[in-house]
Every structure is written in structure tokens, then in C-alpha cells.
Amino acid sequence: MAAKSKPQVNVTAERDPTQVVEGLWWVGRGPWGMLPALTSVGDANIWLIRGEKFDVLVDVGGGPSLAPLEGRIRQAGGDPRRVREIWLTHSHYDHTCNAARWLAKYPRARCVMSATAAEFFRRRDLRLTGMAMFPGLKYQIPRRLSAVRTGNVLECPPYRFRAVELPGHTPDCVGFRGLIAGVDAMFTGDAIIGDQGAVRGSIGWLDGLWLSDVRVYQRTLQKVAGDPPGLILPGHGVPHYGPAAKRSLRNCVRRIGKLLAIPNLPSMMPLFPPDAEVADWKKK
Ligand SMILES: [Fe+2]
Ligand SMILES: [Fe+2]
Hints:
The structure is a single chain. The protein has seven helices and 15 strands. By secondary structure, the protein is α/β, with parallel strands linked by helices. It has a seven-stranded mixed beta sheet. It has a six-stranded mixed beta sheet with strand order 8-9-10-11-14-15, covered by helices on one side. Strands 12-13 form a two-stranded antiparallel ribbon. Helix 5 (214-226) packs antiparallel against helix 6 (243-260). Residues 44, 92, 94-95, 190, 235-236 line the site of one fe (ii) ion.
């Protein structure tokens, strides 16, 4: 029997888009973690899955223009017009602000988010976007939006991914897990950022402003650590492959455990701003 060839995996943040594995490109990010920026300062990591019939973006960034991302997609051999779906890991502005702009320019595209995110948007409740931190800016809710829950299958033929809800950082976090080039890969958004430089087990910024819940977050991390993917593609920083993925997850679990050891931590949130101020902001 012929030996199975090992998949080629590249998790390096280069000055140009990185082909992480065959079919998957790292096409966008700001300078988070002192990495060389690919697109705008306000952008989280943006991934491009290149399928046979159409392509998918995972997150779409929050920078002021689509142009840098469109350029990076072309540089990766793609075409923005082939992007049929945008899978959004959570509502935070740095992952989603450009979704409405993208849908306006590319009318065949649609967005996919967790059912929790869709429900907040249906009520026009923008708390989970974090936009209250930028009172001068307007947030446009993406119109063509499908909602997913844990277990729902997302297709980008020949690839199939499953949605996995990952609440804690925000209640609407969702990951997408599937086989790509023989690798068990998971897009984790800010739920699992993992080891980044000297920081071990980096997790999403906790704040009552976007309804973080530390105990719920701990359960989410424990669950994923119990069945770790082979490749973690986080919302910020470098991806983690193989033993590094397991190690990152263990360190995330450790970090949240340490946080929970702080007496009365949940009652210290919301840290900014108090609920009344958020309610005022929502009426604007
Ligand atoms: Fe976030
Ligand atoms: Fe983020």
C-alpha cells in the first residue's frame, strides 16, 4: 500500500497571502500581533476557501474599503466575483463590518452567521458588533443572511464544513469545522486565538458590552479541547497545526480557568460601558 503523503501546511504570516493548505488561503488581516498586515488596520483574519464551483470567505473585515481585500483575493489566484458565501464567525465589527458593503457590490453573495447573531440583528440590537465603542460610525446589517446552529452543514464543494457554536467571548460565536486537503481544520474566530508569540492561550476580549460569559466560555473551550481539530484558523494571529493546535487549546483552557479563579469576576462585567449607556446608544 502506498504511504499517504503528509499534507503541506503553511501557518506563516507572510507579506503576501499565504496558501495554508491546498484550497485555503489567508488573504486578509490587520497588524494584530505585530504581523505584517495584508489588508486594513481594522481587519480580523480573513480566509478564502477556493471551491470547485464557487469560493467562500470566512470573515470579511472591518476596514474602510473592500479594495485591499479584493486585491489580495486576486493575488491568491481567486476572483471576488466567485465568492458566493461569507461565513461570519461572530458579529464583532472587525470581522463583519464589510459584509453589507460586499453584498451590495456582489449581488450573488450571501452571509452565514449563527442563529444567535441573526436574532440580534432581527431585533436591530447591535450590542454584539461592539460598535458602541465607535459612536461616530454607522453599522450596516447584512441583508442576505442565513442562520446556522451546531451541526448544520455548510458546503463549498468539494469541501463540507459543520457549524459549531462557540459561545463565551460573545454569545453568537460560531466555528466551522471540516476536512480540507486531508486536514481536520476549524475556523474559530475569536473564541480560540491560542498561543501567539509570548502569549499562551490567547482568548477573545471579554466584556459585558458584548455579553461575554466566562463560565459559558470555559465550557466551550473544554468541549473543543476534548476533541481538538488538527488545524486551528483563528480570528487573529497565526494558525496552529498538529501538536501546536492541541497545546494552544490546553493553554486557552488554562487561561480561562485562571480568570475564573478571580473572585467575583463575572460581576465586574460589564466593564464598559454600563447597561444604561448601551440602552441609550441603541436608541440613537
Ligand atoms: Fe471578537
Ligand atoms: Fe476580533
